[in-house]
Specification:
By secondary structure, the protein is of the alpha+beta class. It has nine helices and four strands, in the order βαβααααααβαβα. The chain is 56% helix and 12% strand. It has a four-stranded antiparallel β-sheet with strand order 1-3-2-4. The two termini are 56 Å apart.
Length: 237
């Protein structure tokens, strides 16, 4: 039994070998043109592989899908902090140029960069399950802690706003997005760990009913065909 990934990997390896063979043939052509007094004045044609298409017929013999892996909390925490720093906090400035909040928000973002918000695995799981409340409450509390570490004058500027009322809906919106991303990362990791066993040999496929066969058409574009690689006389120079 063969894994589908191994078959596709072998096909791609053959494509690379074809490219290497074409390059070797081109190198020999360059030498031949240089050695011929007539051909030396002509440009050397380049042998190249532009497109290669392979159509593979196979029969799926076994599909093994593992249990979903744990959520990637480290990756989610990194994304969560970037979102708060580069999206949520800057939105406080929208339409408020007269309040002079730029420096205060800038320092708040820098404080978050130095001391990122911690992300609890259980809170992330609950967000993925549809309840983003714990994740938002935790993030909001930690954001306000970072704010209290700023100079009092900057805090006073930001206290002109109803920070909790303004930040909470923004955090809920972004928490929903983070939960969806986490689900996608988890599903992608699960797919990468899955295994598809296939039959690809002709004698085995002949024994299968045609409607049970699967087909993959793989097209690889390596390089556009180049007509010339430059005059041989220029190469010699």
């Amino acid at each position: 039994m063969t894994r589908l990934g191994e078959v596709l990997g072998a096909l791609l390896t053959d494509v690379v070998r074809a490219r290497l063979a074409a390059d070797a043939l081109t190198a020999r052509a360059v030498d031949a043109y240089r050695d011929d007094p007539i051909l030396a004045s002509f440009s050397v044609p380049r042998v190249t592989v532009a497109d290669m298409t392979v159509r593979l017929a196979f029969s799926a013999a076994d599909v093994a899908v593992p249990e979903p892996p744990p959520l990637d909390v480290v990756r989610a925490a990194r994304q969560w902090n970037v979102t708060m720093r580069d999206k949520v906090l800057p939105r406080l400035l929208s339409g408020r140029e007269e309040l002079g909040l730029d420096e205060a928000v800038k320092q708040w973002r820098e404080a978050l960069r130095r001391d990122p918000v911690a992300l609890d695995a259980e809170a992330l799981q609950r967000a993925v399950d549809g309840d983003s409340g714990p994740l938002v409450d935790s993030a909001l509390g930690q954001l306000l802690e970072r704010l209290r570490a700023l100079p009092r004058a900057l805090q006073a500027r930001l206290e002109q706003l109803r920070l909790k009322e303004e930040l909470r809906p923004e955090l809920h919106r972004e928490a929903s997005s983070l939960a969806e991303q986490s689900r996608q990362w988890q599903a992608a990791e699960q797919a990468l760990r899955s295994r598809v066993e296939v039959e690809v040999t002709a004698d085995q496929l002949e024994q299968r009913r045609p409607e049970t066969l699967q087909h993959i058409e793989l097209t690889v574009s390596l390089v556009d065909i180049e007509e010339l690689i430059g005059p041989a006389t220029d190469t010699e120079a």
